[in-house]
């Protein structure tokens, strides 16, 4: 089963558009150390060539959310 790291950002569901609570998303791609990360910290810590997956189930519509982060495509401040 393994351990997951938590994504602290409050992201939006791509299906219903509602903002999820902070710490709802998780990933096994950032170290599996049960740490909490923000997307901005991931961008600073990992190489631009990294591709990471983050997952959650929407609190509202119950759809399974799987987001692939291609760090080289992400601009600075895109979550601000």
Describe the structure.
With 80 residues, the chain is mainly β. The chain has one domain (5-73). The chain is 9% helix and 28% strand. It is built from one helix and five strands. The chain has one helix spanning 39-45, and strands spanning 5-7, 25-27, 36-37, 51-57, 64-70. The protein has a three-stranded mixed beta sheet. The radius of gyration is 12 Å and the shape is globular. The mean pLDDT is 88.
Provide key terms for this protein:
80 residues; mainly beta; two-stranded antiparallel ribbon; 1 helix; globular
Strand order of the largest sheet: 2-1-3
Computed over alpha carbons, the radius of gyration is 12 Å
Q: Strand pairing plus helix content: what structural class?
A: mainly beta
Largest sheet: 3 strands, mixed
Shape by Cα distribution: globular
Distance between the termini: 34 Å
Low-confidence stretches: none
Tally of distinct domains: 1
H/I helix tally:
1
User: Averaged pLDDT, please?
Assistant: 88
How helix-rich are the residues, as a percent range? under 10%
Q: Oligomer, anyone?
A: single chain
| Strands, total number | 5
Percent in strands:
25-35%
Order of helices and strands: EEEHEE
